[in-house]
Write a structure and sequence with these properties.
Helix content is about 35%, strand content about 15%. The protein has 11 helices and 10 strands. It has helices spanning about 1-5, 25-40, 45-65, 75-85, 105-110, 150-160, 210, 250-265, 270-285, 305-310, 335-345; strands at about 70-75, 95, 115-120, 135-140, 165-170, 185-190, 200-205, 295-300, 320, 325. Strands 1-7-6-5-4-2-3 form a 7-stranded mixed β-sheet, sandwiched between helices. It has a 3-stranded antiparallel β-sheet with strand order 8-10-9.
């Protein structure tokens, strides 16, 4: 952990808002600056960025335990969720989490005009709420507003029992909570939080059974079987693997993403999990809250008083849904826990 912490700028002390936006390593910042210089000198090329995307795709696949051909790349979680939303058969149901982040809700609500039903239930009741009418259960593995971790095994079992597909958003999980994407029919992850990538680099994993019924409604030139040979109409030949769901990449973001994923691929996931949850549990103990092995810790703060105290003490935290919210990651230490407790008792 000391080596991992050294990968970040020493000015990151008291930063407890990775659940809002992650931090880049020094190497990630360096790579982005070098790429800007390359671009500015006229030396950047599509082939150069293609190599960055290919490497990032392979690294992410390894990180979440799926084959590379099961991974599509994109820009935002909502764009990828919209692909699944557009493919829900008319008259079927999607079950979402009541209070989930809207990128996992709005795309499905936009399909209600087709006769799609969207039902919202508390995350703790998700597994008990699926029926034979349910086509898809869509949920965040870690809830953004509370840090609560969904009971993924129970949800998967319930979905299998009724013949429903599973879509799991791991944006608030991948990077601290070990994730096996192949456990779900599809996963989405925007890598700018716990993986420390630039904003604008996201991933979709999709298993064959679901991929066969998904329509790549956002297909562009980068989704072609051979993008450089099929970038003009009128014929369309899309990739036969998950690349047919690719969104044309924002090139510079993928330079930083590749470096960020190389770093996280070098870490032991169990060690990262123990570090982050250990700090979360320590704060919970100090605040008299249940220790739930969560990297995100929240508590009621309807007036924003506690968040203001943290900010006044030089701590970068956040507030969501009437709750104060802090999150611990690689650069944090027990000193940050002590700082939060001191700020709240002044």
């Amino acid at each position: 952990m000391a080596q991992a912490r050294a990968a970040y700028s020493p000015t990151t002390t008291r930063y407890l808002a990775v659940c809002t936006s992650g931090l880049p390593t020094l190497d990630t910042v360096r790579a982005l600056r070098e790429d800007a210089d390359t671009w500015g000198s006229g030396m950047a090329s599509p082939a150069h960025y293609q190599a960055e995307v290919d490497r990032a795709r392979a690294l992410y696949a390894g990180l979440v335990g799926v084959d590379t051909d099961r991974v599509a790349i994109g820009s935002q979680a909502s764009v990828m969720a919209a692909v699944l939303a557009a493919s829900v058969p008319a008259g079927r149901e999607v079950v979402c989490v009541d209070g989930d982040f809207t990128s996992m809700v709005f795309p499905f609500l936009q399909q209600e005009h087709r006769g799609i039903t969207v039902r919202h239930v508390p995350v703790a009741r998700l597994a008990d709420s699926l029926t034979e009418r349910t086509w898809l259960v869509a949920f965040s593995l870690v809830q953004s507003s509370t840090g609560e971790i969904a009971d993924a095994p129970a949800i998967r079992a319930a979905a299998a029992a009724v013949g429903a597909f599973t879509l799991c958003d791991t944006t608030q999980a991948t990077g601290w909570l070990p994730v096996q994407a192949g456990d779900f029919d599809a996963t989405i992850c925007h890598a700018y939080k716990w993986l420390g990538a630039p904003r604008g680099a996201a991933f979709l994993t999709v298993l064959p059974a679901l991929a066969e019924v998904l329509r790549p409604v956002q297909a562009g030139w980068f989704a072609g079987d051979d993008p450089w040979a099929s970038c003009y109409g009128p014929s369309m030949t899309l990739a036969t693997d998950a690349r047919r769901f690719d969104v044309s990449p924002a090139w510079p973001a993928w330079v930083g993403t590749r470096v960020a994923l190389e770093f996280f691929s070098s870490l032991d996931p169990a060690t990262v999990y123990a570090h982050d949850t250990g700090l979360g549990n320590a704060l919970c103990a100090g605040l008299g809250l249940p220790e739930n092995n969560q990297a995100i810790v929240t508590w009621a703060d309807p007036a924003g008083t506690d968040l203001a105290r943290l900010t006044a003490a030089g701590i970068t935290a956040s507030g969501r849904a009437g709750r104060a919210r802090v999150a611990f990651h690689l650069w944090n230490t027990p000193a940050d826990v002590s700082a939060v407790l001191a700020a709240l008792t002044r």
